[in-house]
Design brief:
alpha+beta, Outer membrane lipoprotein wza fold like, five-stranded mixed beta sheet, 7 helices, 17 strands, rod-shaped
Length: 307
């Protein structure tokens, strides 16, 4: 018994120290694990690491903004050329129909189809051998007059407009003064080629679905057809009336100046294709009949009183 107690005495004194050292080692391993997790083969991400998110190529493409194409110079444009330190070489230079400008010292230079940066580099390369040493040249467009788009129809300022760079349908319509909602169902973009049916964009989709971001190019025709109907007979201003959704026959007649004193309010007709629909405007105005909705292309005839 004495021998056993003697042998166990050193162990009993060192065991607490061994346990303390082991706990410190475990703590250190835990800290190292958190700072630098080790991946386990076949189990995906490292334990303790945040989960990885896979991005498809389409998702990456959707987050990449398309490159903006620079404006291309054409015949009819006027360029502003600035050669620093050389006022006699600076100024405005028109581009002729052949796509060339006449520049001092070097003569005709073809710039059609170039961007302003490329045109500046071309002038610089032509001036360096024998004329100027490393000239600093900037080129900008002073007057855009080469890439035309026609805007026609129900627009505030119809006419020909010149592109100043990448331009959408909404932007060219805004430049032409914008359009009103009444009587407009769609906008058509024709690209000028024979047999090209063009692109028709419903009015409601111009903003709602981003369809208004369609780009227009030189030679395009943007037309805004207006939906109309005709009011004839005994009204103040016979002629065409702008159609809008929910338009009734009494509203259409009011838009045409109202019924004249000699009108027979019981003999009002809607001519729709090969149909002839009789309507009593008298009953509608007295609340005894429902106000009839009209359609695009209807012809309304207000009869004359025989009394």
């Amino acid at each position: 018994m004495i021998v056993i107690r003697v042998l166990l005495a050193p162990i009993s004194r060192t065991l607490p120290m061994l346990l303390f050292a082991a706990s410190l080692a475990l703590c250190a391993m835990h800290v190292a694990w958190a700072e630098d997790p080790v991946p386990v083969s076949g189990l995906g991400p490292a334990l303790g690491a945040p989960p990885l998110t896979a991005l498809s190529s389409s998702a990456l493409q959707s987050n990449t903004a398309p490159a903006v194409q620079p404006y291309r110079i054409g015949g009819g444009d006027t360029l502003q050329v600035q050669v620093f330190g050389e006022p006699t070489l600076s100024g405005q230079f028109p581009v002729d129909d052949a796509g060339q400008l006449d520049f001092p010292l070097i003569g005709a230079v073809t710039v059609a189809g170039l961007s302003t940066t490329e045109a500046g580099d071309l002038l610089r390369s032509r001036l360096m051998p024998g004329y100027l040493l490393n000239p600093n040249i900037t080129v900008s467009v002073a007057d855009y007059h080469s890439q035309s788009v026609q805007v026609l129809g129900a627009i505030a300022r119809p006419g020909v407009y010149y592109l100043r760079g990448p331009t959408t349908v909404l932007q060219i319509l805004g430049e032409a003064g914008g359009l009103s909602r009444d009587g407009i169902d769609a906008v058509k973009i024709s690209h000028g080629g024979q047999g090209d049916p063009g692109t028709v964009v419903p009015y409601d989709q111009l903003l709602a679905t981003g369809a208004g971001a369609i780009m227009v190019t030189s030679g395009d025709v943007v037309s805004v057809p207006q939906s109309l109907l005709t009011v004839m007979g005994q009204v103040g201003k016979p002629g065409e009336v702008t159609f809008r959704e929910g338009l009734t026959i009494s509203q259409a007649i009011a838009a045409a100046g109202g019924a004249s004193p000699g009108a027979d309010l019981a003999r009002v007709y809607i001519l729709r294709g090969d149909k002839r629909i009789r309507v009593s405007l008298r009953k509608i105005l007295s609340g005894k009949a429902i106000d009839v909705l009209v359609q695009v292309g209807d012809r309304i005839f207000v009869g004359e009183s025989i009394v």
